[in-house]
Specification:
Chain B: This is Response regulator. The structure holds two protein chains of two kinds. Helix content of chain A is about 45%, strand content about 30%. Chain A is an alpha+beta fold. Chain A has a single domain (about 5-200), classed as CheC-like (Chemotaxis protein chec). In chain A, helix 1 packs across helix 4, helix 1 packs across helix 6 and helix 3 (about 90-95) crosses helix 4 (about 105-130). Chain A is globular. Chain B is α/β, with parallel strands linked by helices. Chain B has one domain: Rossmann fold (3-Layer(aba) Sandwich). Chain B has a five-stranded parallel β-sheet with strand order 2-1-3-4-5, sandwiched between helices. In chain B, helix 2 (about 35-45) runs parallel beside helix 3 (about 60-70). The longest helix of chain B is centred in the middle third of the chain and has 11 residues, at about 60-70. The mean pLDDT of chain B is about 95. The chains are: A alpha+beta, B alpha/beta. Chains A and B meet through helix 1 of A and helix 1 of B.
C-alpha cells in the first residue's frame, strides 16, 4: 500500500473509507437493532493473486462464508466486492434477528448483512468522489456446501488488485468479524490516485 | 481577539476539511491534534475556547476526550465531527456535554449555522 500510494493519498483514502464505513455501520446497527462499536478499518492494497492464500491462512480452521457482489460506476469504475465471514457467530446473529437457525436461513441472513455493508459502504464511497454505482445480485457460498477457497481463486483471477478493508464489529453482547475485499482491475490504481490527488488539492 | 480553537482528528484530510469549512469572518487561532492524548495535553496547558473533535481515533478516542474534559472541568465548547453517526453515539456525546454533532464529511453551511447559533461568529 505504502509503495503504491503517497502518505497524503493514503490518509485521504483512509478518511473516505472511514466516512463510508460509518454510514454502513449505522445502517447495520439499525438492521440489527443494536449499537455497533466502530473501529478504524485497516486498509491494504494487495495483488489479487495473494488473496486465496491469505484467506486459507485466516479462515481454514473454521467454517466460512463468502458473499460477492459486482459493482459498476461512471468513468470505467468497476469491480467485485467480497465479504468474508467465519460462521462461528452466524447462528447467534440469525437467532437475534429472528431468522430460522437452519443453514439456508443463515446464508440468507449473511446475504442481507453483506448487501447492507457492501452497498451502503460503496455508495458512501462513490458519493464522496461524485460517482454512482449499480450492483449485480449477490452470490453467496458457504464452506458447508462449497469449496470457498476454490471459488475465491476463480473470482480473484479475474482481477489484478484487491483493496482489503478489515472490518471488526463489536456488538454489545458479541463480536462479529468480517473482511471486505474490493477486487478491482489494475488500471484502476492510476484512476484512484488521480481522484485522491484531486481531493487533497481541493483542501 | 481571536478565539483559540483546537481541531482534533487523526486524519490530515479531515483536519484540513474542518479548517477550510470555517468562514472567513471567524477570527480564530487554530491549533491541531492528531489523537485524543495530544488534544488533552493542549487542553490542559492552555486556554482553548472551542474544540472540533473526531470520535474514532487511535491512542484516546473522542469519547475519552469528552470524559476527561468533564472530569477535569475544562472550560471549552466541543463540536463533535464524526463518521460514526449512530443515534446512540449522538446521544452519548450530547450527554457528555458536546454542543453539537456534525456528520462527516463536514458540511460548511451546517457548521456556520451551529457557530452562529452559539454566538461564535
Amino acid at each position: 500500500m505504502n509503495t503504491v500510494f503517497s502518505e497524503e493519498q493514503r490518509d485521504c483514502l483512509q478518511e473516505l473509507i472511514n466516512v463510508a464505513m460509518g454510514l454502513a455501520s449505522d445502517k447495520l446497527a439499525r438492521f440489527l437493532n443494536t449499537f455497533v462499536h466502530l473501529q478504524v478499518p485497516a486498509i491494504e492494497l494487495v495483488n489479487s493473486t495473494q488473496i486465496p492464500a491469505q484467506f486459507e491462512a485466516q479462515y481454514s480452521s473454521a467454517e466460512a462464508a463468502f458473499v460477492s457482489q459486482g459493482f459498476l460506476g461512471n468513468g470505467g469504475v468497476r469491480g467485485e466486492a467480497i465479504v468474508l465471514y467465519q460462521l462461528d457467530n452466524a447462528h447467534r446473529i440469525s437467532a437475534l434477528l429472528g431468522y430460522d437457525t437452519d443453514s439456508a436461513s443463515e446464508l440468507e441472513m449473511l446475504t442481507d448483512i453483506s448487501s447492507i455493508l457492501t452497498t451502503t459502504f460503496l455508495n458512501g464511497l462513490a458519493e464522496q468522489i461524485d460517482n454512482q454505482l449499480s450492483y449485480s445480485a449477490p452470490r453467496v457460498l458457504s464452506s458447508r456446501q462449497n469449496n470457498v477457497t476454490q471459488a475465491l481463486i476463480d473470482t480473484a483471477c479475474h482481477w489484478e488488485l484487491a483493496l482489503k478493508v478489515d472490518i471488526s464489529y463489536q456488538l454489545i453482547d458479541h463480536s462479529f468479524n468480517c473482511d471486505m475485499l474490493l477486487l478491482i482491475p489494475g488500471e484502476a490504481v492510476l484512476n484512484i490516485q488521480q481522484i485522491l490527488d484531486r481531493i487533497v488539492e481541493e483542501y | 481577539m481571536a478565539l483559540p480553537v483546537l481541531i482534533c482528528d487523526d486524519s490530515l484530510l479531515a483536519r484540513k476539511q474542518v479548517r477550510k469549512s470555517l468562514p472567513e469572518s471567524f477570527d480564530a487561532d487554530i491549533l491541531t491534534a492528531s489523537n485524543g492524548l495530544e488534544a488533552l495535553t493542549i487542553l490542559r496547558s492552555q486556554e482553548i475556547g472551542l474544540v472540533f473533535l473526531d470520535l474514532t481515533m487511535p491512542e484516546l478516542d473522542g469519547i475519552g476526550v469528552l470524559e476527561a474534559i468533564k472530569q477535569d472541568g475544562l472550560d471549552c465548547f466541543v463540536i463533535v465531527i464524526s463518521a460514526d453517526i449512530q443515534p446512540e453515539m449522538q446521544k452519548r456525546v450530547t450527554e457528555l456535554g458536546a454542543l453539537a454533532f456534525i456528520h462527516k464529511p463536514v458540511n460548511p453551511e451546517k457548521l456556520i449555522v451551529i457557530l452562529k447559533h452559539y454566538g461564535l461568529i
